[in-house]
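Lab notebook, bench 4. The sequencing result for the construct came back, and we need a structural model before the next group meeting so we can plan mutations. Quick request posted to the team channel:

Model the 3D structure of this chain.
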Amino acid sequence: MLIGILLIVISVLSYGAWILLGSKTSNPDNYKTIGDIPTPWGYKRIKGDDAAYSEFLRSLPLKGRGADVMLYTGGRSRFQSLNYAVVDIPLLSNAEQCADACMRLRAEYLFYTSQYGRIRFQNVNGKTLSYGGGSSRKSFERYLRNLYGVASTFSLSREMKTRRLADMQPGDVFVYPARYGQQYGHAVMVVDVAINKRGKKAFLLAEGNTPARDIHVMRNFENPFRSPWFFLDDDADLLLLSVFPYKSNELRHF
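Done. Here's the predicted structure in token form:
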């Protein structure tokens, strides 16, 4: 009887330690890429409208277990608990913040697949800035640095098209410009989507932030046992994604 009670206590303590430490440790299972993160039980990844883009996002490399989100200027960022896993892509500028991180991932895909003519984004004045440097990595990074200084959540929200929540695809972006009473907007990218037999979707998010810091896969605090997957409610008017609230009409696509 006593041994049984001790075993139960040990199990509970071990389980509690897993929740406490496992939920706060970056990339706790040392996954190599976003695509290595297992889907929730009963879910399968979707190809999306652009299967190559979906696979590119899933192939993004992750830093190892325990990696911190670092600031461009050096040092650890605040609120490390928001980070599930750090994407292993070096920052290009201290201006590479939330909207810039979304544009960066989109541009990296187009550059990787030699679709140079499709690399174009709007600045805050509505002018389209097109990339013209071909396969030169140096020219590509210079273009992005220049873009970061003149684009924002406002320009990103304006140039992208609205997507219904039910039609969510990898590469979509939740984005809102500054709202009444808020100085800043925010943007996060959907980097993976999975679906179950009932048609219910789950998704992974990645973000940058202000001040400039490593792009990272976001943790879902509402589902600690299935973190970092978020579960989509098609009928929701407001979505709380980590600590950021989005309206249902703020899902966009390029």
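The first strand starts at residue 44 and ends at 45.
Will bring this to the meeting.
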